[in-house]
Amino acid sequence: MREEGKIYQTLHNSKEVEPAGLYNPGRDFKSSKFKIYHNPIELLELSDAILIYNTERISADFIRVMIRKSKHIYFRRPPVLSVSEIADLLKLQKEAGSVVHLFNSLLGVKPGIISEIKPGVKIINLQLAIQSTEESLSFEILNSLIYLSKVENSPVKHSEVLAMKSGQGYITLNIHSICPNGSVHNILFSDKDISSEIQIFQKDHFIRFSILGNTGTDAAIQALDDLAFQNFVLAIEGKTSESISFEDYYNSQKSYHDIREKLAYSGIEI
Hints:
270 residues, 6-stranded mixed beta sheet, 39% helix
């Protein structure tokens, strides 16, 4: 967490949230406002809700422990799990009755968007300026697919992929997807100077809004960290009904792995 003061202020203004502490594995990490725990289990035992910023070291076993303790779990980024692990955890979550949210930058930039979308067939155009790295591309693809799974409330049926990579490593990628309900998604990622926006077309309804591009920059990461934290507090207080569920995450996986395989044929490993 970069701005401890801002986090403290957000918590201070909340009447329903009392911080139990922060977990940080670094023994030299200090805080003047929060109790620091170097063992995540200690903090877990004291907490009713947990926000996880760094998901790279979070195992399926640890998530299983949190779910069994019926914790309210909020992930800043999707945890790195296999499809079978996500399926097992989703089943356990439903049995335990716990709540698992995933922060999604596309959902966060326009609150209330899901309630604005009407049932039925849609044409969705999503274009996003990205950084020219496979790591950034991997995250943005997954982030977009999770968002679209939320919008459609179903997985994608089929995707076609066209990718171009220059000799200097610059990437432009187009994904054309078809959903079981007949909806069509066109996703464009590029490191060129393009506008980042989403357009949603329906028979008698049209939604268009800008989104944050180049999310790998320090300023963008800070802004999204702050937004994730604010949404975490709102979720605890019951003031927001729109969030990404573990089921949305699971629905995105088949399409994500299908796109990864198709990109590999173009010489792009993500």
